[in-house]
């Protein structure tokens, strides 16, 4: 009996074995809480550090009143910006260019001609330098608007910052499409040459608000 015949014989044997085996019980004893307190200064500082490691540019502001100025500074030089339909108007209050809401949905060509996108975030993970966008959230919008423009500005409030991945997952709705962002889009070819902007924005700026 050659190897192929042996494999097929085992498959037939398993098929003819009768009732399926009892499901395997998987132990889930991993830690579900991080070492840092969600929303605390130490946690937000850790997120700042990990985002910077991923080559994102981070600005910290103390209050929501400072968000428009920080966003406008990041958008310096941009002529057009796309935003989700539910983005707070105040965030773009200091921006001098044209703002286009994604309602009705813009085409890929229209998004490609747009300089930047501004969104909020559902949750951010300090340990991994990741923030999560939820399609169902009014200040985050469709996935396309955050993948096609070359520049993404994200505003993250301290109360959305947790320490670990399990903590973030517990806050998310699994029925909603989610996008996990860890730094600007980048990849490397076989020669290890870094190429940015292949499958998303090549520039990522983050405004951290509070605590």
From TrEMBL:
InterPro entries: FTHF_cligase-like_sf (IPR024185), LUD_dom (IPR003741), NagB/RpiA_transferase-like (IPR037171). It holds the Pfam family LUD_dom. Signal peptide: none annotated. Residues 111-209 form the LUD domain. This is Lactate utilization protein C.
């Amino acid at each position: 009996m050659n190897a192929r015949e042996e494999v097929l014989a085992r498959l037939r044997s398993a098929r003819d074995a009768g009732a399926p085996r009892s499901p395997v019980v998987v132990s889930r004893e991993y830690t579900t809480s991080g070492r840092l307190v969600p929303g605390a200064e130490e946690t937000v500082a850790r997120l700042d550090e990990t985002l910077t490691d991923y080559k994102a540019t981070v600005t910290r502001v103390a209050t929501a009143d400072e968000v428009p100025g920080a966003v406008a500074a990041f958008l310096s030089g941009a002529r057009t910006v796309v935003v989700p339909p539910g983005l707070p108007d105040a965030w773009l209050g200091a921006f001098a260019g044209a703002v286009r809401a994604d309602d009705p949905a813009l085409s890929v060509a229209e998004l490609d001609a747009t300089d930047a996108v501004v969104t909020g975030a559902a949750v951010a993970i300090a340990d991994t330098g990741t923030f999560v966008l939820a399609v169902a959230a009014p200040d985050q919008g469709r996935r396309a608007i955050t993948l096609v423009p070359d520049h993404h500005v994200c505003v993250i409030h301290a109360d959305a910052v947790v320490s670990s991945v399990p903590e973030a997952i517990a806050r998310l709705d699994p029925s909603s499409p989610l996008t996990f962002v860890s730094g600007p889009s980048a990849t490397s070819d076989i020669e290890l040459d870094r190429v940015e902007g292949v499958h998303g924005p090549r520039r990522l700026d983050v405004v951290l608000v509070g605590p």
